[in-house]
Amino acid sequence: MQRKIIVGLRSLAVGSKWVIGSVAILLTGCGIAWLGIKVTGSQAAFTAWLDTARPWLQLWRLVLYALMAGLWFSRVRGRFLLQLPIRQVRRLELLTLMLFVLIELGAHHHQLFQGAAS
């Protein structure tokens, strides 16, 4: 009976860490947006600045993706292959790739649909 309580508390602790982490990321994003609006003077000026910085921000994301892929193949993948079947590891890789593609599509959503409406 105690084991179930401990497992339940562990799952609660892990869940609360995810919630706290998600809230921290959300607050960080809101803080960066607020600071950007204050520095540029208005929301329109901040949006214009973001539009001019779009290629550099995309380059930054691509560098981060390359860094994560390099670390995955050089350090992490081998450990996963020791613990999981290769099918599960490839599924994880495919889902991660799909996540990156969806992030990029979301980042370009405004630009894609704005060009189609004009």
From TrEMBL:
Record-annotated membrane-spanning stretches: 12-37, 57-73, 94-113
PROSITE patterns xref list: PROKAR_LIPOPROTEIN
Keywords for this protein: Membrane, Transmembrane, Transmembrane helix
Record protein name field: Uncharacterized protein
Source organism of the structure: Chimaeribacter californicus
Lineage, opening ranks: Bacteria, Pseudomonadati, Pseudomonadota, Gammaproteobacteria, Enterobacterales
